[in-house]
């Protein structure tokens, strides 16, 4: 089982989430989040769905998202 694509994707997700969680501007949402943290439903895919929480104009929002993703990438 540990060698299945699902398990490898889930393992990667579990490793990445703490880096994403360090950015207070993002919230984890979606089916994978529910599956891992609330209920154990069968999943066809494993991914990270994020929502950017700040309410800003579009250019400011895009700069904020880019900056946060850059910080995540350097961790």
Any overview of this molecule?
- The chain is mainly α and about 80 residues long.
- The protein has one domain (about 5-75).
- About 55% of the residues lie in helices and about 10% in strands.
- The chain has helices spanning about 5-20, 30-35, 60-75; strands at about 25-30, 50.
- A two-stranded antiparallel ribbon has the order 1-2.
- The model has no long low-confidence stretch (mean pLDDT about 85).
Low-confidence stretches: none
Report the portion of residues in β strands.
5-15%
Output the helix-strand order: HEHEH
Overall number of structural domains: 1
Overall 3D geometry? elongated
List keywords for this structure.
single chain; 75 residues; mainly alpha; 2 strands; 55% helix; 11% strand
Layout of strands and helices, then pairs:
Blueprint: H1 5-21, E1 26-29, H2 31-37, E2 49-52, H3 58-74
Antiparallel strand pairs: 1-2
């Amino acid at each position: 089982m540990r060698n299945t694509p699902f398990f490898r994707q889930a393992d990667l997700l579990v490793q990445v989430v703490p880096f994403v969680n360090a950015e207070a501007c993002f919230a984890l949402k979606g089916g994978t989040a529910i599956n891992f943290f609330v209920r154990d439903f069968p999943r066809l895919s494993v991914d990270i769905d994020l929502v950017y929480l700040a309410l800003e104009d579009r250019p400011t929002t895009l700069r904020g998202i880019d900056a946060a993703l850059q910080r995540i990438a350097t961790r």
